Amino acid sequence: MTAERLAQQGWRRHAPKGFTGLIGPLWSRTEQGILAFGVIAKEVHLNPARLVHGGMLATLLDQVISTAAWQVAGRLPCVTIQLDTQFLSSVKAGDFVEARADVIKKTREMVFARGELTVSTTIVATGNAVLKILQAASGH
């Protein structure tokens, strides 16, 4: 997968700040009103077994799930309080890992969501999360 091909498919380079920026470069595109993310796996993402590190995949899942939560929470910040991750298949250098999320339920203070990572048509990891919506500052 190349940057040119991703751009042709509607993906755009996404440069998040902070820790999430370390797993990129990330690619993003809006699908059915929700942001999807993708990463071309590189050497820097590999573990000693020469496969993409599970921590990197869990971070990508957390990113896509928390972004979906942020969107449904009216762009209020959301923090993950639980993330259950299931690794189903390995990811190799050169693979393009796509991340998508669905919100299952939103309450006044919480968001319940799930995410999925795929390489081509293969599901490589899934996750279920609970996120707390941080309320806007009241000015006090």
TrEMBL record:
Entry keyword annotation includes 4Fe-4S: no
Gene3D superfamilies: Hotdog Thioesterase (3.10.129.10)
Xref: SUPFAM superfamilies: Thioesterase/thiol ester dehydrase-isomerase
Alphabetized UniProt keyword annotations: Hydrolase
Occurrences of domain Thioesterase (ranges): 52-119
InterPro entries linked: ACOT13, HotDog_dom_sf, PAAI_dom, Thioestr_dom
NCBIfam families: unchar_dom_1
Family named by the database record: Belongs to the thioesterase PaaI family.
Protein name: Thioesterase domain-containing protein
